[in-house]
Amino acid sequence: MSSTVSSATRAPVRDRRTPLTWLKGGGLTNLLFMVPLLVIFGVFSWTPIVQAVVMSVQHTNLVTTPEFVGFANFVHVFNDPTFYTAVQNTGYFALLALVFGFPAPLIAAVLMSEVRRAKGLFSALAYLPVVVPPVVAVLLWKFFYDASPHGVFNTILSWVGIPPQPWIQSATTAMPSLVLEATWAAAGGTIIIYLAALTSVAPELYDAAEVDGAGIWRKIWHVTLPQLRPILLVTLILQIIGTSQVFLEPFLITGGGPANSTITILQLIYSYAFQNSLGGNYGEATALSLLLAAFLAVLSFVYFRATKAWSDN
Amino acid sequence: MTTQTTTAVAPEVLSATGSAAAPARQRRRFLARGPKEADAPDRGIVSAADWHRRSVKASLRPAHILLLVLLVIAGLGPLLWLMKSAITPTQDTLTNPMALFPNGADWSTLSTAWNDPSVGIGQQFLNTLWVATGSWGVQLLVATTGGYALAILRPKYGKIVNGLVLGTLFVPAVVLLVPLYLVVLHPPLLQTSLLNTFWAVWLPAGANAFNILLVTRFFNSLPREIFEAARTDGAGPFRLFWSIVLPMSKPILGVVSVFAIINAWKDYLWPSLVLHDPVVQPLSVRLPLIQSQIQLDVFLAALAISTIIPILLFLVFQGMFLRSAGLGGAVKG
User: Best mutation site among B4, B9, B37, B45 for testing chain A: the one with the most A CBs within 10 Å?
Assistant: First the structure.
């Protein structure tokens, strides 16, 4: 891709445009300012994207010379039983993340927008978990999830008479535990986005609704939510795209366990490429990452198509 | 490269965020509105008349108090627990994690966590600052020069470059993971690998299309008459860039800086792949590795030390953080 750019940058000789007029017109200065962007994007973005497509149809492990293998990498991925486990787990994580993480920030933001005093205190408290470095948060929650009766969460549960829970030790509770941590870490950001959107709702709309005799609930239902609809639609799909690539929580809290019950697609890509004792299986790793990217692209396309009529009113 | 916050973003996504859709309005908001003001519309859902109704008062007040309590527990609780446990002896934390200093505090954990020759994180703390500073510098250089060329100098091929840059927003970062690793292993034109050097984190961080988008939009919204006037007064493109465009762009450069520093502080997957040597590792990479070789109280102290700086930065620059989150969070995911 970068080669098309550089050939385009060399003054196209057309009519009266010559390299000399290009130079006099500031062409060199323009190019000089463009250089950092072209070099950095060329080397660290455009080339690797093309490289990903090439590698997905090659057998590459850095030891032997790359050879063309067609769709063999994709076939290998589809023949790997762990692939289906990872897809299921990732889907489950994304679904739970929506159930846990979609309504709560919306309710909190609507409530917070009506706070009259110390509004800044509410936003700051909500945003604090977002500021905690994710690795610290994950390691801290791993300790909170200690399954012994002396674990932090189990101690708190014992105050209200609930017996100790296995949390990340059991295949059934491990995934919800991971989602709980992820929701805690991300909800503050979503709340702030909703708050910003709420302030942009035109006050006249509420005035008009009141003239028509609307109460608070009707104002929320007929004014607030329709006004937030575009931003809600966007955060929904972005959350799905983000959670489809979840890595940190399962990697550092459960390591994909117990019994692969929390292994995710990104973790599988990681293990293909970097945890392979026979040398990195880069072809399969890029094949799987392209599959994921293609799925997300199709999903986003269908999603925006399907919701277009709805968001345009 | 921020692998955790990866997104593919469609153009309609950007226009749907509202604040990014109208550059002129966006600039005014950046320049004129303080952090407090931005949160204060003339009125909200509940009208003044509503507030006088007893049923509204009786339900909204408790709801707000309940929300505040929940926010304190969720937002402040884990942090306070971490600060407490960082200076509590291991045995106390293990047997009764919710007790407050049953056998007194032990401040020595903090200095052990910082100084210990094998597991101390003092060096990694400085590395984190260094990683963040370098990533910030590279991102700012690429975004300002590139944005200036694309938005103000506008060469003919600019549209193609802009399209290629924005196109990368559609590509989830997971696609880049392996090929980018191989680029860092064998960079073009250089004879040596970038593994275990800070460049391996700094340079890929610069290829951030979101920064280019933000800066280009902002530069586009600057009044072009000023540039014409400066040119008439004899200012060349370099002078225009340095003395006029950059000083006018402090608000957007602030936003880009916040994102750059925060992302560098947060990132785990990419630095863990390219920085294997503890001497160059940042905190996020080092902390999971030392967990098993270290006493619990010292480990919690290390976690607390790693959290202090981001929290302090947030408390000091709260307004800027929250405005950045409101503006870019929707796009960043």
Answer: B45
Select from B70, B175, B193, B318 the residue whose CB has the most chain A CBs within 10 Å, as the one to mutate to test that interface: B175
Q: Report CA torsion sign: B187, B189, B191, B192.
A: negative
The C-alpha atoms of residue B330 and residue A193 are separated, in whole angstroms, by 6
**DSSP SS3 for A202:** coil
pLDDT in tens, A119-139: 889 999 999 999 999 999 999
Nearest by CB to B76, from A27, A111, A125: name it. A125
CATH of domain B11-40+112-332: 1.10.3720.10
Q: Where are the domains of chain A?
A: 2-56, 75-311
φ, ψ (nearest 5 deg) of residue B39: -90, 5
Share of chain B above pLDDT 90, in %: 42
Residue by residue, DSSP assigns A129-161 as: HHHS-HHHHHHHHHHHT--STTSHHHHHHHHTT
The shares of helix, strand and coil residues in chain B, as percent rounded to the nearest 5, are 70, 0, 30
- Rounded to whole angstroms, how far apart are CA atoms A194 and B122? 38
Find where tokens 């289906």 sit. A84
The span from the CA of A205 to the CA of A197, in Å, is: 15
Q: Please state the pTM of the whole predicted model.
A: 0.84
- Write down the ipTM of this complex: 0.86
Q: How far off is chain B from A172, nearest CA to CA, in Å?
A: 24
**Does the domain at residues A75-311 carry the CATH identifier 1.10.3720.10?**
yes
- CA of B63, closest CA in chain A: separation in Å? 8
Q: Where are the beta strands (DSSP E) in chain A?
A: 58-59, 67-68
